[in-house]
Amino acid sequence: MQEIQIHNSTFESYLTENEIDSSVQKIAVAINSEYQDRHVLFIAVLNGSFMFCSDLLKKITVSCAVSFVKMQSYEGQETTGKVSELIGLSEDLNGVDVVIVEDIVDTGNTLEKLYALLNDKSVNSIKTATLLYKPEAYKKNLPIDFVGIEIPNEFVLGYGLDYDGLGRNLSKIYKLKKH
Ligand code: IMP
Ligand code: MG
User: Fold this and answer.
1) In this predicted structure, what is the pLDDT of residue 85?
2) Cα–Cα distance measured from residue 155 to residue 134, given in angstroms and rounded to the nearest whole number
3) For residues 68 and 43, is the Cβ–Cβ distance under 8 A?
4) Cβ contacts of residue 7 below 8 Å, gap of 6+?
5) For a tag on the chain, would you pick the N or C end, based on fewer CB atoms within 10 A?
6) Is residue 6 in a domain?
7) What percent of the chain has pLDDT over 70?
8) Residues lining ligand 1, CB < 6 A?
């Protein structure tokens, strides 16, 4: 499928399954090397990161566990600037090495909120792995340690990422077509 229509927006093909898989592989190799002989707790940010998290974890060879938080900052194609925590973390995180798993880092608002939540729980370390990163939109100073692909400041869809709840099932990534 070259183009996808959702509501009144058209999306064009942007990243292939092969490009996505190589990026996931690159991130996994970096994490496996960084955390050799250690234990990692992956914290995936729902909903968007479910597909990336699943593919990434299949390539992780170090000792690990996975947990999920649910955060929301986007409505339609716009960031609201406010991040709400819809499902939180209940486990004891004292002394744990955390890798945050994000589908995409845009303004960094979600990341900042998550860092604050984790620091309150006295974790040992926090690093972030994201499949996509929009450097032009990023407004924070927090490090983004494992990046798959840097993309321009454009709205994308597929492989977990949605427009108004739709398109998460697509195995490729599409971007909004400009008229
Ligand atoms: P941030 O808080 O602005 O960094 O945005 C992070 C969240 O907004 C991501 O985890 C996504 O769920 C969502 N998001 C940001 N950019 C896009 C996009 O281009 N398409 C779909 N969702 C996006
Ligand atoms: Mg997300």
Assistant:
1) 66
2) 10
3) yes
4) 163, 164
5) C
6) no
7) 92
8) 45, 48, 73-74, 79, 83, 102-110, 155-157, 161
3-state DSSP assignment of residue 166: strand
Of ligand 1's listed atoms, the one at least distance from the Cα of 108 is: 4
Q: Assess if residue 177 is contained within a domain.
A: no
Total structural domains in the chain?
1
What is the CA angle 139-142-146, rounded to 5? 110
Region 26-53 average pLDDT = 97
Determine whether 106 is an active site residue: yes
Mutate to test the pocket of ligand 1, among 106, 134, 149, 154 (most ligand atoms within 8 A of CB): 106
- 161: containing domain: 14-170
| Separation of alpha carbons 150 and 138, rounded Å | 11
Contacts of 120 (CB under 8 A, 6+ apart): none
The answer to the question of residue 149 being in a domain is yes
Q: Is residue 97 part of a domain?
A: yes
Q: Which atom of ligand 1 is found nearest the CA of 79?
A: 3
Question: The domain spanning residue 25 has which CATH number?
Answer: 3.40.50.2020
At 2-30, the pLDDT tens digits run 899 999 999 999 999 999 999 999 999 99
Mutate to test the pocket of ligand 1, among 70, 107, 136, 161 (most ligand atoms within 8 A of CB): 161
pLDDT at 123 over 70: yes
